[in-house]
Structure formats: structure tokens, C-alpha cells
Amino acid sequence: MTDNKLPEGWQLIRLENVCTLRKEATYPNENLNRIYIGLEHIDSGLPYLTRTGLASEVKSSKSKFYKGDVLYGKLRPYLDKVVLAEYDGICSTDILVLISDDLVLSQFLVYFMHTSTFLSYAIKTTKGVNHPRTSWTSLAKFELSLPPLPEQHAISQVLQTLQKTVEIRRQEMALEKERKAALMQHLFTHGTRGEARKMTKIGEVPESWHRLPLSQVAEIVYGVQAAVAKLLDESKGIPILTNINITNEGNLDLSTLRYYELPEKKRKTLILQTGDILFNWRSGSQKQVGKTAIFNLEGEYTFSSFILRFRASEAIFNKFLFYYLQQLKLQGYFTQNRQQSSVNSVFNASVAAKIQVAIPELIEQHEIVEVLQACDKKIATLEKEIALLDEFFKSMLEELMTGRQSALGLND
After folding, report:
1. How far is Cα 98 from Cα 84, in angstroms, rounded to an integer?
2. Distance from CA of residue 227 to its chain's centroid?
3. What is this structure's pTM?
4. CA dihedral 142, 143, 149, 151 (to 10 degrees)
5. Is residue 203 part of a domain?
6. Count of C-beta atoms within a 10 Å radius of residue 292
7. Same domain, 391 and 285
8. Residues 217 and 329 reside in one and the same domain
9. How far is CA 378 from CA 180, 375, 390, in A?
């Protein structure tokens, strides 16, 4: 942006002319109860903190910061980590502590450092391969378009209002997920009939529910035995779902797809059908073992060797089995009963076949599914609303920070 394109009253000014780098070092043992902030406490793209640590949890020299300082993550700047300090504390030396002067509001500066323009500049100034970092020396030369203080305040207020709206929706979604988890626990323990319960190896279940091993209520099949990481050419073969396509929430994430030419002789077994249940049986992280999703996509798909396919029999409603497996994961069943190879946590087909499935009558299975699907529908609606609000916030951030839209009067 050049001066003749700036809105009236705005100025182009170097970052070093409106803020300075705080250089106060300290050691955690000087005050073990002091708040500590590391890069792990800062969420990408968020201008405020959602969590903190304590000085007692860390060692070695750290940087001091004070309320109102700007905390900028210089390690891997593409992660877009910058927040406003709301209290005094200490932070990682991979965080630059910036003090704004009288020409710029700290909150405005935080928002500006989240713009695509500043982010691109910071990424270009990084050095290092394994641990790319930028520096204050490089960032100080960045020229920002700075409006007068009243407009800085108005811009900050508009963006804060939008962020609060998003945060309210995030809290609603978190509460709905907690509600769903509580309902699952209740429904798979008490059922919908209010009947007496009996104790089993998988915990309490309604007295009338009968138990069968998974192998008797579903067909269990391993996925394709092939190295698929580099199979990115969609013109060759069909999509092959891997463990990265299954989320912990039980959804299918298609943001990263691989493609595989499935031999004709394996198509009958390894082409997925609507309603098939995909089970991640092997992972380097024990928390990922047991994540499950229902296949509901159009077109031909297959699945990789780290996934087991469960195809429900007539004895059980596939969506009931899906939620049942989700409940087992929530209560830590797969973590507690997994096997361990040299590098992976494992819950293979022979182990999965022995999972005891507590089964009510089909009509009660459907009742339980209806309740939990209603929860999932509300969660999905909130997720879409949050995504739209996030996009609107990013759009407004760019519009307001470039002066293409004025914030003056928007808060009235």
C-alpha cells in the first residue's frame, strides 16, 4: 500500500516506530506461581488466550511480560500465533514481547499482526529449516498502515464483538458435545426403558440387553495392504480412506485424499457400501485407536490397511453399533485393552472380534440412535455457523485493516 492509497488521516509507518521489544529475562524459580505462556498455549489465529501454564512447570531462562503487551510467536510464524497479554507473567523465549507506544493501541496491533499481509511478510523473513524463526530485527522493518487512534479503537471494538460472537458459539458447541457424551453414557447404561441393570465386563447395561462378540454381529475386514502416502494422483484409481480421514468426533474428513487402483478381484470385498463402519485399529497415538466413522459418501471408495471395516448384520442397527463403539472409546475401552507393537498402539481384527456388544431390541436401538443423531445435528449446525462466522471475521479483518471499510459508526 502506498501513501496516495491510504484513507484520509492514515499513515504508513514502520513497526519499530510504534512499538519496542521488551528484553526482561527471568527464571521460573524466582516465582513458581507466576503465569507461564508457551507457544502451546496460543491458538493459531486467535487474538486472545484460552489457557495458560505455571512457572513451576518449566525451567531455564524466560521472558517477562506485562498486561497490555503483545505476545508474538516467532517460531514457525505461519502458525499465526499472536495475543494480547491480559495479565503479568513469563513466556517462552520463542515469543517476542512487544510494547506499543502512544501511536498505536495494543489490541489494534494484535489484530493487525493477524492480517494476511503481515503473515506473508513474517513467513518471508524466516530462517532455519527444522525450526524456522523470524526475528524482531526483520519484523521491525514492516510498514503498517495506521489509522488515527479513534478509528483504531473502533476497528478493535468491531473485531472484538465478532470474536465474542464466535466464542459464544464455540462454548455452545462444547456444551452440546458434553451433553451428547452424558447422554451416551446414560443410554448405554440405562437404556430407554428404565429397567434394572446388570454388571458385565464392559460395565453396567440394562438387564434385558443380550451380549454377543462383535464377530457375531458384524463382518470384520482389513483394508488394502499398500503404501498409499504418495498416491495423490486422482486420475489413477479411486479414493482410499486412511486413518487421517477419520476424526475423533466420528466424522469423515476428506481434506486430504489418496487414490488407489483396486484390483478387480478385490472389489467385492474392499469397495465400501453405505452404512459400513470404519474403525481405526492401528496408530502411533493410543488416543487415535478406536476412532470410528460411518461411510455415507457417494461414489466408489476403498480403505487402507490401518482401518477395519465392520459391516453390521441384521441383528444390529449399524448406527447403533457406531454409537456403541464411540461410547467405548469415550470410556477408554480401546486404550485400556489395546496391544502395543514397537511403535504403534494396536486393536487388530482378532482383538476387535472379541468386543462384547450389548444389544437391545431393534426398536430400542433406533430410539437411542434418534436421540444421539439429534445431538449430532445440533453440533453440525453449530460447526457450520462457527465456520461462517470465522470467514466473516477474516473478511472484516482485511477490510477494516486496509481502510476499504470504515469502522466508525459500526458500533452504534
Report:
1. 10
2. 26
3. 0.81
4. -110
5. no
6. 24
7. no
8. yes
9. 10, 5, 18
